Amino acid sequence: MRLDSKYFDRIRTRRKREQETEQAPPSCQWDGCDKKGVHRAPVGRNAEGQFFLFCFEHVKEYNKGYNYFSGLSDGEIARYQKEAITGHRPTWTVGVNKAAKNSPLHSDLRSGSYRVRDPFGFVNGTKGSGPRFPEQRKLKSLEAKAFDTMGLDASATSSEIKSRYKELVKKHHPDANGGDRGSEERFRAVIQAYQLLKQNGFC
To answer: Looking at 87, 112, 129, which one is the last position of a domain?
Structure first.
């Protein structure tokens, strides 16, 4: 490459930058102040990103009396603060699905105290009219004792339990026995057994 080539000059030399004129900082925007306004102060609500420029003394004075919520009622302030938690974005409650909201807790399902409604017979192997196989209940020891006390087997229906309870209460109530203390213990045992079965969803 020759030294007097036009390309050589473009590679080796740079354009001289124009001398940037340094701008003097703006003056304070406080009325009657001639000092330099180097401190920013927010303009206010609905003017985000806009600032006043004040000197140090006047920015302190402005900040003392600044209130972002001036002109708003207490309810509007509370709503703004609540929306600020989520960054003013719309939110929805957890579990919008109504079926999930009304469904039993996992602990209830495991304890067996909740019975699943199954109109199509998917869970119990039934189809509309009746059970395909007789449903066998798995009883806990207290539940089995309650059925024994009532004189019923584990396959008793809700109406059978209720009718048996009424029958036993009439039979062992102290008023029916003329105040005989012998059947009082049996009366208490029947009531406790019925309450246990009722709490566990058998009747």
So the answer is: 87
Q: How confident is the model at residue 80 (pLDDT cuts 50, 70, 90)?
A: confident
CA proximity to 55, closest of 31, 34, 32, 28: 28
CB 106 within 8 A of CB 123: no
Length of the chain: 203
Task: Give the whole-angstrom CA distance, residue 83 versus residue 55.
Answer: 34
Q: How far apart (Å, rounded) are the C-alpha atoms in residues 170 and 187?
A: 9
Lowest-confidence pick of 14-28, 49-63, 84-98 = 14-28
Please give the span between the terminal C-alpha atoms of the chain, in angstroms, as a whole number: 105
User: Helix and strand tally (H, E) in the chain?
Assistant: 8, 4
Which of 87, 102, 122 delimits the end of a domain?
87
Would 49 be classed as within a structural domain? yes
